[in-house]
Amino acid sequence: MPTVSQDIIDSIRNPSEQEVAHVDAWWRANNYLTVGQIYLKSNPLLRRPLEPDDIKPRLLGHWGTSPGLSLIYAHASRLIQKTGQEMIYITGPGHGGPAIVAATYLEDTYTECFPDITQDEEGLRRLFRQFSAPGGIPSHASVTTPGSINEGGELGYALVHGFGAVFDNPNLIALTVVGDGEAETAPLEGSWKSISFLNPARDGAVLPVLHLNGAKIASPTVQGRKDPDEVRRIYEGHGYDVIEVEGSDLPGMHYRFADALGEAYSKIQSIQHTARTEGVIQGRRPRWPMIILRSPKGWTGPTTVDGVQIEGTWRSHQVPLSGVRDNPDHLRQLEEWMRSYRPEELFDDAGRPTDAVRAINPSGEWRMSAHPAGNGGGQYSPLELPDWRSLAIDFDPAERGRFRDESTAYLGRLLEQIYRLNPTTFRLFCPDETNSNRLGAVFNASDRTFMESTTEEDVKLSADGRVMEVLSEHLTHGWLEGYCLTGRHGMFASYEAFGMVSVSQTVQHTKWLKEAIDIDWRESVPSLNILLSSTAWRNDHNGFSHQGPGVLSTIVNMQGRIVRTYLPPDANCLLEVSDYIFRTKDRVNVIVQDKQPQFQWLTPDEAHAHCRKGFGIWDWAGNEDLGSGADPDIVIACAGDVVTMEAVAAAQIIRQRLPHMKVRVVNVVRLQTLSRPKDHPTGMSDQDFAEAFTDTTDVLFCFHGYAGVIHQLVHGRPDVDRFHVRGFQEEGTTTTPFDMVVRNKTDRYSLVIDAINNTRRTIRGGADLKRWCETQLERHEEYKVEHLEDMPEILDWAFEPNPAYS
Prior knowledge:
Blueprint: H1 6-13, H2 17-39, H3 66-83, E1 86-91, H4 97-106, H5 109-113, H6 121-130, H7 158-166, E2 172-179, H8 186-191, E3 205-212, H9 222-225, H10 228-238, E4 241-246, H11 252-278, E5 289-294, E6 304-305, E7 308-309, H12 328-339, H13 343-346, H14 355-358, E8 404-406, H15 407-421, E9 426-430, E10 448-449, E11 461-462, E12 468-469, H16 473-485, E13 489-495, H17 503-516, E14 528-533, H18 550-555, E15 563-566, H19 571-581, E16 588-592, E17 597-599, H20 604-613, E18 615-617, E19 634-639, H21 641-657, E20 663-668, H22 686-693, E21 699-703, H23 707-713, E22 723-726, H24 737-743, H25 748-757, H26 766-787, H27 792-795
Parallel strand pairs: 1-2, 2-3, 3-5, 4-5, 9-12, 9-13, 10-11, 13-14, 14-16, 15-16, 19-20, 19-21, 21-22
Antiparallel strand pairs: 6-7, 8-17, 18-20
């Protein structure tokens, strides 16, 4: 954090006439470039009168919010130049993209990243032509925008990304503009509480600018129409020190905004200096500054078009002059509009921005579009990880499947060690469920973060904590996104059903990474790691509302080189998978693992080999003669912890009661290994697939999620009709664990019946075993109602090794 004198603060708040002239020149240039991107494909400097052929055939873009974004950017650049403050700019208004692209061009960063967009007239033509055009760039601030860590088209996440960026980043300010349309979204409404988790002694600062221009795409905004005093009280109630700026007069707005920005910066400096010299007092959360900027929508654009008011209304949101190619009056208005910025003062004869425009630009990495925090922290830094085997369950293979343990508790111990080894570059983000998901060992290394007051009843809750808990999937997921995109590591842990609350964020982050890895100047970033626990199959008291495995169905459709999904069957597999994903970058990794005590199947060495391969034949669970070369009668496959137990139990029933029926058990940990290699980079080869599932034997696949996921993944494999998938069927309630699998026909008895029915030869004794299984299911229905628990043979079941296996 730079030490800034009062004289410098005063100079920021009271700019000279020349400084205002330079800010205004930059602002006018940015507005000019913004309009040019929306409309022009040629004649970028208006060297001649505009002609219809200079206009793009499709006019796409958003003008309304752009002048305000440019004003904020200009003044922030001047502040950085004077103070040396590290700052990034996060654009919340969704389609303010042309203004931010223009800003990065004026800072030279765009040309550095895209050398063909040169600093001359030809470069301007290319800049304009590519905007919102085939083969070009999108209309919002996105991956292709230098310095951006926020997808502008995904409204609602600007502020939470800003806070994620500054956690453990003490010298950084995330200047975050919130559009008044975006302010209406649920995630953004919830993001204001993030200051309750921001520690000024060790974290940076977020400076929110709520840009109220009064309208969204086709109607007024709620806060734009509220009484200003009421709006102020909203944010004061959240705990902010509100600074307000309003108007459209020039140069008056420059002076007023410079004063507001300088005041806010001075308050941030004071808060951080006090915290870092005197310490943080629990419960005395600072009142962080924020700015409310009121300026007209479409400011400086056409006032009226065809006799209809445009400036200051929703009509300026996108393209104020829509008939430019066909309507001479519109073409004339466009030219007058662009010439109103006096481009001859802003660009020299070659088309390069003049010295007056460039005067406020910071240099090097101090430019907001070039700051390392806007590009993965500048360089990927791996985590320091412990040897997970030192935390593993080491047992005799003869004991496999004969004892239970809480697998996620072992992950909690791994996270504890990661916290100790990486005190400023790793955090767990969890919506109030860390202990519930059995990850509580992490509290041995860190408290929960909380800047508000605490009481004697509070446990592991303090301003010094670094475990992030708040009852919002949007916030915890979004914080992690901002944290990872600025170069730090972490994990988001949620109940499986409520992963659906934030799954659109997961999807958008996947899209971001997919685009980013194809941009050579984008640095790699730590992977976004997600743990989904408290799963569909074991919610003994929450019931149907908490039973939903839909995240898997969504995420398997994402780009294969980005997404990985893991369903470890036990603790050692969970540790191996977790160790692996924390070493990856540029990925979205999703682990699904329940928190309840479950059987432990694989030793550490076995887990390592099994998870690295992604799948495997559990010969100790079946009864086929692997050396004979003959295919089994049935393959029982499984992916997911609870369904793995049922699959192994079904195989045990068959080999004990129908030993001449040959069964093979295949467990899948990395779900996408089922895909063909051409469909996913981790897909198993045709030979591996045949060795696991044969080419002709029917496969009974017991799956954690919806059956369609497996059918989708095995598409194109030999004779896919032989795959009979049993998964979650939207049958659930508050019930016993075994009743959940019975309701969805993934229980051991139903699996045995299905196995016999799908065997391609008549199995002597099969009819009798089916009747026995049906009787067991009838007993279960009666027993659970009478005794309120599962049958003893279910509760006391343990794996019985195959005597023929050694």
